[in-house]
Amino acid sequence: MDVMRLRLYRARDLPVLLELFYNTVHTVCAGNYTPAQLDAWAPRKPDEAAWDASLRSRTTLVAEEDGAILGFGNIGPDGYLDLLYVHRDHQRRGVAAVICDFLETLYPVDRVTVHASETARPFFEKRGYRALRSQRVERRGQVLTNYVMEKELS
Fold it and tell me: Which whole number is the average pLDDT over 82-101?
C-alpha cells in the first residue's frame, strides 16, 4: 500500500475532481442540506472551464494514494481557503487534515479564512477556526447557509 501524498493540481485531474466534488456533496452533506440545495451547490454538469480556472487561480493540492485521488483543497496568497473536499469513501481518515495542514503553511499570512458549510464547520472548529458569522448565499436559485470562519496563525 502506498502512502498518501500531496501534489499540485494538473488539468487532467479535473474530471476526477468534479466527480469527487459532486459525489461528496451529495452524500456527505446530505444531512445538512435539501436535495435542491445540493443540486444547486454541486450540479451534475458543472462549468468545467470555470472550475479549471478556479483551481489554477489558487494553489490547489491533490491527495492521492495507490494512484487514486482521495481529496483536494486550495488556498490563495490572501489566506482564503476556498475548497476542501475528501472522497466520500475516504472520510474520517485524516485526509482533510493533511491537506489543510499543508495549505495553512503555504503563504505568510496572519490568518486563514474559510466559508465553511454546515457539514464542514465542526472539522474547522476542531482545527482552531472560529465562526465570525453565518451567511446565506444564493446558488442557482437556492439559498444555502455557511459560516465565515478564521484561524489566527501567529
Answer: 95
